[in-house]
Amino acid sequence: MTVTIEVCVDNIESLETAQQAGADRIELCSALALGGLTANAGFVQKSLDLATIPLYAIIRPRAGDFIYSEQEVDIMVSDIKFMKLLGIQGVVIGALTPEGNIDESALKRLMTASRDIGVTFHRAFDLCNDPKQALEILINAGCERILTSGQQAKAEQGCDLIRELVIQAGDRISIMPGAGVTPENAEKIINLTQVTELHLSGKTTRQSVMKPNSVVQMGTEADTDSLISITCGNTISNIVSAVSS
Predict the structure, then answer these.
(1) Residues with Cβ < 8 Å from 224, sequence gap 6 or more?
(2) Domains and CATH numbers, the chain
(3) CB 28 within 8 A of CB 58
(4) d(Cα 122, Cα 233) in Å, to the nearest integer?
(5) Checking DSSP bridges between strand 90-93 and strand 4-9, what pairing results, if any?
(6) 182, 156 Cβ separation under 8 angstroms
(7) Per-residue pLDDT averaged across 8-21, rounded?
(8) How far apart are CA 47 and CA 30, in angstroms?
(9) Positive or negative CA dihedral for 47, 49, 54, 58?
(10) Given a cut of 80, is residue 226 above it in pLDDT?
């Protein structure tokens, strides 16, 4: 069984690292520390210039919940259309109602805008009050895959539900575990759930090359400016090796 490894990145350094380490697909975002927001046009265009593997762009206009106003859905529709003009292979979307159901009205608009490219429904799915009903809605809408931790903090803890979703989905949609996926637990997750795709960021940090000449900080946390968050190439290559063996 071939397992696809998707890596989420929010900077061009990480894209190159993940690709060189053997990633099969990239999810592009900004502000990974906030769960991922829509990436800017320059980053997407440069990523498309450099990538030799498929790129999916998250469409999320702000941090916080996944309950969107009409104006916010307008923004997401515009972002999808623009990503398509740039040449993106797919988008990553999600929208819910206050009751924890799929926002079918917003979903319809987002899916219409996404015609002719791939669509992943992101971890908003993990906040749904009825994941099995939500699964059928997303299948009927034409989504390609669902990113989920099995409604747990980490995918490894959600394997029971993930496996149930895989069985229910059959070959109608792909279920892709994400959150806390590592080289150490990847094989276990695959064996328990029988999934064919995994999602991770493989985050680490590196020191900034800036030579400080001021006490001024741009960020609100200590070391925000001196530590750069990047993808760890060893983590990605190790998980590729783990799933291929």
Answers:
(1) 217, 218
(2) 4-202+232-244 (3.20.20.380)
(3) yes
(4) 24
(5) unpaired
(6) no
(7) 98
(8) 13
(9) positive
(10) no
Mean pLDDT value across the chain:
95
Q: How many residues does the chain have?
A: 245
The reported pLDDT for the residue numbered 220 is 61
Statement: residue 235 has pLDDT above 70: yes
Rounded mean pLDDT of 72-92?
98
Question: Which residue type occupies 230?
Answer: I
Distances (CA, A) of 211 to 177, 214, 221, 224, 226: 40, 9, 19, 15, 9
Place of tokens 């080289």: 183
The per-residue pLDDT for 158 is 98
Selection from 80, 23, 82 nearest residue 51 by Cα: 23
**What pLDDT is attached to residue 101?**
98
DSSP the chain: ---EEEEEESSHHHHHHHHHTT-SEEEE-B-GGGT-BPPPHHHHHHHHHH-SS-EEEE---SSS-S---HHHHHHHHHHHHHHHHHT-SEEEE--B-TTSSB-HHHHHHHHHHTTTSEEEE-GGGGG-S-HHHHHHHHHHHT-SEEEE-TTSSSGGGGHHHHHHHHHHHTTSSEEEEBSS--TTTHHHHHHHH--SEEEE--EEEEE------SS--SSSSTTTTTEEEEE-HHHHHHHHHHHH-
Statement: residue 222 has pLDDT above 60: no
End-to-end Cα separation, the chain, in angstroms: 10
